[in-house]
Structure formats: C-alpha cells, structure tokens
Amino acid sequence: HHPLIFKGLKRLDFSTYPANLLKKMSDKNISNIAMHTNFDKTHLGAFVANSVLDYKVVGQDGFIVYLEVNKPFELFAKNIASSFGISTLKVVKSADFIKTAALITGSGGSMVDSIKADCLLSGDIKYHDAMLAKSLNISIVDIGHFESERFFPAALEPHLKNLGLEAIISSSKNPYTYL
Predict the structure, then answer these.
(1) Which residue of 28, 60, 77, 122 pairs with 104 in a disulfide if CB–CB is 3.0 to 4.6 A?
(2) What is the pLDDT of residues 162-177, one digit of tens each?
(3) pLDDT-based confidence at residue 136 (cuts at 50, 70, 90)
C-alpha cells in the first residue's frame, strides 16, 4: 500500500530498509505498484467506514470521509476500538456526544482544522494537532496509522476481481508492538 521509497535515497545500503527490500525485489524481478495516496482518497476511507466500522458515508471531501454517528463519546470510542482490534485508544474528549465523525485513514492529524465534524478518527495524531483539536472543540480518536490502512487488500480485492485481474498482495507487518 505504501510506496517503498517514501523519501529520496542518497545511497543504497542493501543491509537496511528500504534498500534491502529493493534488492530482493530486483533479484526476483518483482514490481511494486503503490497506489497509496490515490486509493486512500478514492476508496479506502469509504471501505473502512462501511465494511469495518459499519457506518454509512454521508459525505466525502478529498481524504476526509464523514460518518453520521449519534452516540455518546465513550460508546463510540469503544466501538472503534473493537472494530479495529485496538486494546488501548489515545483520545481527546471534547464532547460527551458525537453526532458526526470525520475519518482519515493513515495520518490525518494535520487536517484537524479542515474537518467539519465533532470527532476525528485518524492515525499518527501529533501533540500540537491534538491541542488544536481541543481548542476547536473537536474530539479525537487516534486509530493508528497501520491499523487504519491494513484493510487495503480487502478494499482492493473486489476491484481486481471485477477487472478479471489476479495479484499477490503481500500484507505488511506493523513494526510496533503494544505492551
């Protein structure tokens, strides 16, 4: 899902990431097609909203997918944790009740001042983005970068089948463990 080379490379050290993977791919004549940004914008957010969270999408603005929630914050947060299989959530509670939520898969904290919802669901929320959200009276549920994007293969599969295409999609591993 992510591009293998996310930042420019100044040298190729085949003992470290990402050059070690580039070497293996080159040796096996494997191509990497990364549809990260465009697929997130057009498909992944809506798929996660509908198929993972079981919410209907009521609007979309670029990467931001809007959901109608109408639940108390604690219940909503518990449902999110259960749906994503997350045992501990990092949250900013700015209201007791969530009417609408904005979902941004991956890292969407920098877009907090662009959303028009009571709560932001995204990963990689930075401290200053959380402080801004609190000042804007926007609640946050940090769902994790990997956790929100791990559904890419399931989201892509029906589109490949519809086109009569077969592909091997290798699932990435989360480099983090939680204690």
Answers:
(1) 122
(2) 999 887 777 778 888 8
(3) very high
